[in-house]
Structure to design on (243 residues):
């Protein structure tokens, strides 16, 4: 069950590949990969984190005990902290540095962007396949005559191939929109516990290193752009407790 994203529509319309992208294993495995990227970045920038701790985390990225997570979440009422706890049981030497300096949005928001990016790439692959198949169909039927219509009334003759190129044109415009969205996707990065990066200033005591945190994490997760500011700094103002 944990490998499939459960929704009333998933079994009827979604492909196996799309269901896997949005599955629990994919989502929470992405959380753990983000924690690995965070730990690697902090180590590179001078925090006392060992290769052994990072290796231990990497070894258990896909090893999730959902029963332990559920039990812990029933106690602490916090999904991210429940996963931090469970990850720590698998990585005892790294327990103290998992999620270090970060807020819940580091994994929740970044993972959503990463999964959306994967989903868009899957849609793009299938869209290109449909366009390619329509091209072959249009060429094959370019001489097949059919009745044209205007205002839902019979009009001059056209061809089946010509009609297919109209469908292709619509799909090509969809492809342009999709590629535009892909080219402008940004990772949240890691803005610290309240969105101000203050927690990283306390860790690094070096503004230039703090500025590198977002860049390095984004690069490790396959992105070249991050949002300049984060809304997580609103938590203190509206009375929420940051994690």
């Amino acid at each position: 069950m944990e490998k499939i994203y459960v929704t009333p529509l998933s079994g009827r319309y979604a492909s196996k590949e799309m269901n896997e992208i949005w599955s629990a294993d994919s989502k929470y495995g992405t959380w753990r990969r983000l924690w690995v990227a965070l730990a690697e970045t902090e180590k590179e920038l001078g925090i006392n984190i060992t290769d052994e701790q990072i290796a231990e985390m990497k070894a258990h990225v896909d090893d999730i005990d959902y029963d332990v997570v559920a039990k812990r979440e029933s106690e602490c009422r916090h999904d991210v902290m429940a996963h931090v706890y469970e990850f720590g049981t698998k990585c005892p030497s790294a327990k103290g540095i998992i999620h270090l300096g970060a807020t819940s949005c580091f994994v929740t928001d970044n993972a959503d962007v990463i999964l959306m990016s994967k989903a868009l790439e899957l849609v793009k692959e299938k869209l290109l396949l449909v366009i390619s198949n329509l091209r072959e169909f249009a060429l094959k039927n370019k001489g097949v005559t059919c009745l044209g219509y205007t205002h839902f009334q019979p009009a001059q003759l056209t061809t089946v191939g010509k009609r297919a190129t109209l469908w292709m044109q619509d799909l090509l415009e969809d492809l342009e929109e999709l590629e535009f969205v892909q080219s402008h996707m940004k990772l949240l990065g890691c803005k610290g516990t309240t969105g101000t990066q203050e927690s990283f200033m306390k860790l690094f005591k070096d503004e230039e290193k703090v500025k590198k945190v977002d860049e390095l994490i984004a690069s490790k997760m396959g992105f070249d752009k991050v949002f300049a500011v984060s809304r997580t700094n609103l938590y203190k103002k509206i009375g929420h407790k940051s994690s």
